Amino acid sequence: MRGRYKINYNKKNIPQPTIHRLTIYLRCLELLVENENGKKKEMISSSELSIITGINSHQIRKDLAYFGGFGKRGIGYPIQNLIITLKGILGSSKKWDIILAGVGNLGEALLRYKGYKKRGFNIIGAFDKNPSKVGKRINNIELYDIQYMKTFIIKRNIKIGIITVPAQAAQEVAEIMVNGGIKSILNFAPIVLKCPDYVTINTIDISIELERLVYYLSAETYSDN
Amino acid sequence: MRGRYKINYNKKNIPQPTIHRLTIYLRCLELLVENENGKKKEMISSSELSIITGINSHQIRKDLAYFGGFGKRGIGYPIQNLIITLKGILGSSKKWDIILAGVGNLGEALLRYKGYKKRGFNIIGAFDKNPSKVGKRINNIELYDIQYMKTFIIKRNIKIGIITVPAQAAQEVAEIMVNGGIKSILNFAPIVLKCPDYVTINTIDISIELERLVYYLSAETYSDN
Predict the structure, then answer these.
(1) Predicted model pTM
(2) Which end of chain A is less packed: N or C, by CB atoms within 10 Å?
(3) Interface pTM (ipTM) of the complex?
């Protein structure tokens, strides 16, 4: 029998949409456990998981089978086990230190957000070029001058950075991060960052997210021709 | 010859990942045109588009072929034409009025963001239940009591809403929006909203976005077994 943390696949080969769905399964299972409190549900079937995630159950079974058979036909998956396994796969059972660059409105909102910690993420420093911000604290996170960012990344061995600077400054900031040793960037600037292949970039562009919604909305107003 | 706006496909059948990539092509082409200024480039090949978008050229050709053959082998795509066509497909050549519910840090950051307008989006009202916020203006957008949200949506015929309220209030707010007639929701609350099938929901959960990054980061620290 395979142990929970012995994962016999090559992570690099798992398609990104599968990873996206795994994060959704994990989040929904955790919410389920939080909300259940007293009445403890031990097992969950793929069709129950389908209802709470909105992802169809065939897809769920396929995604989870990717990582070895930890469900039983007709019975389902043991919830706690599935949570631990998903955390193991996603690497979210670890703790991760993060830095953030650009303390404007969005940057400040992200610094004030309390939801990271229980997911294992900890913003340990924020950087801005505006001298009037340097030295302040937001949500107990210190704001430093951006010229010290690279040294900070190296010293603290940071691997994850969040970019909330304006578009025209984002490429430069990304390069400083990568030069310091950062390998994963969550980018909110509406540009396509150029980074070496070994750096993973996840860009969230609010306008693009709205456009994706609008596509489906406008589907109703177009007719086939 | 097919006219630019005569789109002969059923929008509902286009896979979501294709739509996601189309929004990226459009954004990158627009940035290209903005940055080019004087030296006008008229055509772009799929391999050039691949370099600026980071999406492989085979995929690009496949995605664009979906919507009819508007490129020429060996020559590429006419840039301006491609932009107009993509806008037509995505519905982003239209103007869309939007409302926002929940004026905390993130909501305020989104209200202050100036990038929507040139993408055709216009936030025309924001709603909060906190009486100390009601009546104020942020970036010239008026803040109303959330009890008037449904009436506002109906009166102004709003189809798109942004949710930036805390997780525990998000479901109720989504229901008010849907009852008012909203069909597309951009949700920043870290929960899975339950809405009727005809409503499109795009949830952005910062922790989940970080987890997606961490998966690739932790891939290096796991060994195959």
Answers:
(1) 0.73
(2) N
(3) 0.71
